[in-house]
Amino acid sequence: MALQEEFEKRGNWLFRYRGILPFSILIAGILLYLYRRLHPGSFFLGNIPEEAYYGYACLLVSLLGLFIRVYTVGHTPSLTSGRNVKEQVASVLNTTGSYSVVRHPLYVGNFFMWLGLSLFTGSVWFVLVFCLAFWIYYERIMFAEEQFLRRKFGPQYLEWAKDVPPFVPKFRQFRKPEVSFSWRKVLKKEKNGFAALFMVFFIFDAVGEIVVRGREFNYIFLAGFLLGVVNYILVKLLRSHTVMLEERDR
Question: How many domains in the chain?
């Protein structure tokens, strides 16, 4: 099998099982975080009074990633830019909004969401390893996705991809989205991400406090986690028993 076909095959497999990397990051990250809590001197910023605010800074980095996903998904039509897990789907080629500055904005969002968590461990080496692993992992997925789009949209895709970078945005060439923003689509597609984001930060904080036998739990992480769970349940109920979140072509 030629290298091009091998890359595409691996990329499609990784696309289908792309939850593997986040799970690995979660396990390794929580172990490093616990080590930092047990050995405060290992924190790369040192044992400083402002360490408590560092967690909020990490959360903001992750929320930036979530914002990128929300903005991107909210401005796209149906059967594009979703959380489809089995195969590539694209009813149209998105070329405006986030897609006018970068070809894979959802993966950029994923990067920042997990970067915040990686920073939360307090390990410089873990952050560097995460960045390398993320790039190797998602490079295959992006390659497979672009092969799919190239075959489906042909010259239209090539013309768009010629000036739009794959991962590092070019903000000066931003074009206003052709599709209006839809909170309904965001609620349907991103409910998992919001709940999972705060859940992970809360778990890290709670387990860390338990290990050091402390009681100073971060109530912002807890409140975000509970809000995410409530939002997830409500959206599931609304989708199952009503048509409130349904929109034509969204």
Answer: 1
Burial label for 119, CB within 10 Å (0-12, 13-18, 19+), is buried
Domain region containing 134:
3-186
DSSP secondary structure of 149-212: HHHHHTHHHHHHHHHS-SSS--GGG-B--SS---HHHHHHHHHHHHHHHHHHHHHHHHHHHHHT
Distance CA 24, CA 224 (A): 23
Residue 244 lies in a domain: no
Which CA distances in Å does 16 have to 21, 61, 76, 83? Answer: 12, 26, 21, 10
Helices marked H in 75-169? 105-120, 124-153, 155-163
Residue 104 lies in a domain: yes
Residue 79 lies in a domain: yes
Q: Show the CA angle centred on residue 81, arms to residues 75 and 85, nearest 5°.
A: 150
The residue among 97, 78, 80 whose CA lies nearest residue 88 is: 80
For residue 122, the surrounding DSSP H or E stretch is: none
What are the tokens at 97? 């909004």
How many other CB atoms are there within 10 angstroms of residue 230's CB atom? Answer: 11
Check which CATH number belongs to the domain holding 20 and give it: 1.20.120
Residues 49-74: tens digit of each pLDDT: 556 688 899 999 999 999 999 999 99
Name every residue whose Cβ is closer than 8 Å to that of residue 210 and which is 6 or more positions away in sequence.
none
- For the chain, which ranges sit under pLDDT 70? 1-15, 17-21, 42, 44-52, 79-90, 250
Q: What is the token pair recorded at 143?
A: 């390659």
207 domain-assigned: no
